[in-house]
């Protein structure tokens, strides 16, 4: 009886740990199966980004062939005109590349090869704080990624209640 409880509690803790892990770090493969290239239409990356929820700690995966594309983080003005001149970080030359989103805010990425950016190889994203901090009320943010990001926690809480009702 006692060891059963320990096993159940252990399983619950493991499940919570997995949920926490899943919550902490989502990999976003930029452009999905299309990867990072000159897109088939110039809204491809914006359409893709609009369907993602980016949180601090998540990872962007840029799938591209080294020497055919690169990834340059730039300020918005540079993004708008497709200029790599004011790059904010070291240009990522080697594909595929994994880029961790370390802070919240807006981020802009372009490819600096030829006219790739002008042809639509550019990405703008909004990164929100991780779910633990978005649980706190934040009056300034009008859009609410919290609804999505808190779901795993709610699921874990319900599972806990469910499992403990059997002990
Ligand atoms: Cu390119």
UniProtKB/TrEMBL annotation:
Domain of life: Eukaryota
Name of the protein: Phytocyanin domain-containing protein
Signal peptide: 1-24
InterPro entries referenced in this protein's UniProt entry, alphabetically: BlueCu_1_BS, Cupredoxin, Phytocyanin-like, Phytocyanin_dom
This protein's UniProt keywords: Copper, Metal-binding, Signal
Phytocyanin domain span: 26-129
Record bears the keyword Metal-binding: yes
Pfam families assigned: Cu_bind_like
Species of the source: Stylosanthes scabra
């Amino acid at each position: 009886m006692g060891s059963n409880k320990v096993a159940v509690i252990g399983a619950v803790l493991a499940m919570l740990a997995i949920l926490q892990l899943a919550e902490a770090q989502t990999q976003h493969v930029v452009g999905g199966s299309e990867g990072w290239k000159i897109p088939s239409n110039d809204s491809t990356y914006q359409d893709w980004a609009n369907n993602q929820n980016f949180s601090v700690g998540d990872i962007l995966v840029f799938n591209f062939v080294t020497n055919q594309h690169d990834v340059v983080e730039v300020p918005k003005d540079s993004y708008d005109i497709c200029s790599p001149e004011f790059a904010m970080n070291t240009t990522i030359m080697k594909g595929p590349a994994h880029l961790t989103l370390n802070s919240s805010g807006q981020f802009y990425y372009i490819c600096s090869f030829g006219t790739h950016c002008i042809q639509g190889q550019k990405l703008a994203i909004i990164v929100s704080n991780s779910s633990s901090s978005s649980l706190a009320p934040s009056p300034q943010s009008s859009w609410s990624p919290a609804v999505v990001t808190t779901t795993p926690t709610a699921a874990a809480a319900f599972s806990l209640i469910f499992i403990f009702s059997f002990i």
